[in-house]
Each structure stands twice: as C-alpha cells, then as structure tokens.
Amino acid sequence: ENPYFIKAGYAISMTSKFQILSENLEFGIESLLPVYPNEVVINHSDTLNYLKYQFCVPSEFIKEIDAQNLSLKHITEYFSNLDIRNGINIYLNNNWALVYIQRIADPVFNNIFKYETPEDLLFHIVQVKQLLSLENENQNVHIFGKIEEDSRIIRLLKIYFSNVQKIHLSNLYN
Length: 174
Description:
Radius of gyration: 16 Å
Helix content: 10-25%
Shape: globular
Strand order of the largest sheet: 9-8-7-10-11
Number of strands: 11
Number of helices: 3
C-alpha cells in the first residue's frame, strides 16, 4: 500500500519525505532528501502558525487527484486541529504511523514510517523512546486514527507504557 488516501474531500499524504519549517527559512526539501524525476515537491504555508510544509508525492498521484478536483495536504498539516498532548502521539492509517513526540509543549520528534506488524510499531516507538531518553512509567501515549480500543497494538503498548489512551477523532480533517 502507498502512503496516500482520500478523506473528507481531501487527498492526504503520509509520505515520510516531508519537512516542517518556520515560514522564514528559505531552504527546500531537496537539500535534505532526494527528489526523484517522477516526484513533485508540494509547498504549503500556514501563516497562522508561521509554518511551511514541504513534501514529495509521485507525479501520477498528482494527476489522479487533479482529475478528481481534490486538494492535497500532508497529514502533519492537520495536527493544528488536534489537542496535541505532551508525550508520544501516534496517528495510524493503513500500516503507516505518524509518531509525534512533544515535551512541555515543544515538539522533539516527528516522523512517519510503514510497519508490518504491531511488534514492528512497538519496536520503532521503543527505539525512539530510548534515543530521546524518555521514561516508560510516566510517559503518556496517545493513539489516533484507524485503530480499535482492544487492538493488539494498544495491548502491546500497555505492556510497555503505563498510560496509553485511544483518542477519538471527530474534527481532524476539518
């Protein structure tokens, strides 16, 4: 599966080839990641939050969404609609995970990856937790997106972390 989906009249990208910048910074995603000939760089500005979003998508996907007259956004652009909380925030959709870690209102980690099994997802989160020297006992883990309350992913996370919550989304794509 690819990291793109359509929801509420929008085409949404969960590509891991993205960056979020202060709107005052003037360097492109090309300085960080390779942009291939079959890809297009999308640039969006969020003037309210002084941010700039850049991400790569295949040219074929652009043709598909243009034919359907859809707007394209990166999943991270929707996070201003959420009450992001301190701790590990995980958005899941079709075996793609956006992991956004925040400490005292400051983002410290933001990445997207594909996982095959719940154990893969747990391994990645534990690796990031160790890299950032986060504690298990006091760490809040919030899960959003396509996941059931009694899923294997949530059960595994509850073994490793003491405070795991499924957050129900009603207004993410507004």
